Amino acid sequence: MQLSVFEIGVTVVLFAWVVFLVTLLTKKTYLYMRGIGLPENVAVYYNRKIIHILAGGLVAVIIPYVFSTPLLPLVMAFLLGVFTYIPHKTGKLMYWFQVEKNMYEVSFCIMWGLIIAVGWVISNGNYWVGILPVLFMSVGDAVTGLVRNTLFKKRTKSWWGNLAMAMVSIPMGAILGIAGVIAGALASLVEHFEYHPIDDNITVPLTSFTVLALAIYYAPSLLTF
Fold first, then answer.
1. Residue 156: pLDDT above 80?
2. Which residue has the higher pLDDT, 90 or 192?
């Protein structure tokens, strides 16, 4: 497997973008939100969803147009997992988006990389089998959180958030046909439930990916590539 200089360069740029986003840009948005009177927990939760979209979602969409294999995105995801884990281990949290109660951003990074990589393998090189579940986790779940945070000013579960997620995820799922639509609907349903320590950054992509994997092997007519 030969990695091109271009792919390595893009990986460095994307990694730097995510680090910039989580260390500098969202710190600025946190200070702005606190400055206009938003409670700390609300500002932190908004920032987590900003990161979901501008790191997880944006980078995922770029992947198919740049990388010949998912090796470098997988390595990048694992490095970001370590990067977000270290503050928890040392007790020096990036307080503008991290919280003591959970390390969900770590599982986000790991699942992001694994789902994209495994999806590429089982589909013989079609990135979207892995990217679509990642978009449900990144963008769909972010919409859920933004709606809930606006309505309730705290991290909580509400069917209003799941409805908003479905309105985003189901149309996104149509990229891969009926199976994708079903995957988007189930992802929007599963997000409502948590089984600590397993969080929705695990259940959402895993559930939707399972639907697509089953379609590949048992009902390919439900997929549109």
1. no
2. 90
Nearest to 208, CA basis, from 107, 65, 106, 111: 111
- The 3-state DSSP class for residue 41 equals helix
DSSP 65: G
Quote the pTM value.
0.94
Can you say whether residue 177 is alpha, beta or left, with left for phi > 0 and alpha for psi between -120 and 50 degrees? Answer: left
Q: Long-range contacts: 184-189, Cβ < 8 Å, 24+?
A: 184/132, 184/136, 184/140, 184/208, 186/211, 187/133, 187/136, 187/137, 187/140, 188/136, 188/140, 188/144, 188/162, 188/163, 189/162
Measured CA to CA, the distance from residue 126 to residue 121 in angstroms comes to 8
Number of H helices, E strands in the chain: 11, 0
197 phi, psi to nearest 5 deg: -90, 5
Question: What's the confidence (pLDDT) of residue 134?
Answer: 98
Q: Which residues contact 106 (CB under 8 A, 6 or more apart)?
A: 81, 84, 85, 88
Q: Are 73 and 3 in contact (CB under 8 A)?
A: no
Six-digit token string for 36 = 């206009």
What 3-state class would DSSP assign to 195? strand
* E-assigned strand segments in 68-213: none
Dist CA 167 CA 117 (whole Å): 27
